[in-house]
Amino acid sequence: MTTLTAKALLFDMDGTLVDSTAAVEGAWATYKEQYPHLDIPTILKTAHGVRSIDNLRQYVFPAGTPEHILQAEADKFEVEIVNSANRAKEQGTHGIIYLPGTKDMLNALQSPGAKWAICTSATRTYATAALNTVEFPLPAVFVTAEDVSKGKPWPEPYLLGAAKCGVDPSECIVFEDAPSGIRSGKAAGSKVIAFLTSHTREAVELAGPDVIVENLSQVKATWDGEKYTLVIA
């Protein structure tokens, strides 16, 4: 059992708090109809935790494609993720769901004065829709793809999240599941708790987190008015 303290908690969204794997895979399948050359299995191995605009730049569009075109396509792609999730829900399956431990953690986050943020590679449109789908309250500090010039694995998302919380990054704990996000949190100077919800243990270990657990259910948080105490099973 490990105990850590922090003045703010910074969460990735997808793969950490919620799981939209099925919806994302559905969106890529739809995208492949327009771009049949895409190697979807290869893309899915590395795309998680990376901004859609960066994935499209790397896998879909030729070098030199203007940023405004890439951004427009990224917006369309993330709308398709939401559409895919809605279709799944209509068919009686789950496109976006809570991951284990999320609801319990939310109780701690809603304590008076508790400082926390979501720092996601998703666009604000998609991230808002995804959280609304599972009725997760939108955080006061919400860092999305549009807010940074360089997304994960660069440190900017978590540096911005810490700054908006008014806390030094070294006094924050980052929760992540993707290697790119783990590297982002470490580069920002924060401790990182990593989950095994989307990648192999080997891939997660290579990214260098401070703690590895299966999912958020192994982390219990309390807020005392000044700091969090985390007990990690």
From TrEMBL:
GO terms for MF: sugar-phosphatase activity
CDD domains xref list: HAD_ScGPP-like
Gene3D superfamilies membership: HAD superfamily/HAD-like, Putative phosphatase, domain 2
Entry-linked SUPFAM superfamilies: HAD-like
Record-linked InterPro entries: HAD-like_sf, HAD-like_SPP, HAD-SF_hydro_IA, HAD_sf, PGP-like_dom2
NCBIfam families linked to this entry: HAD-SF-IA-v3
Protein name: Sugar phosphatase YfbT
Phylogenetic classification of the source organism: Eukaryota, Fungi, Dikarya, Basidiomycota, Agaricomycotina
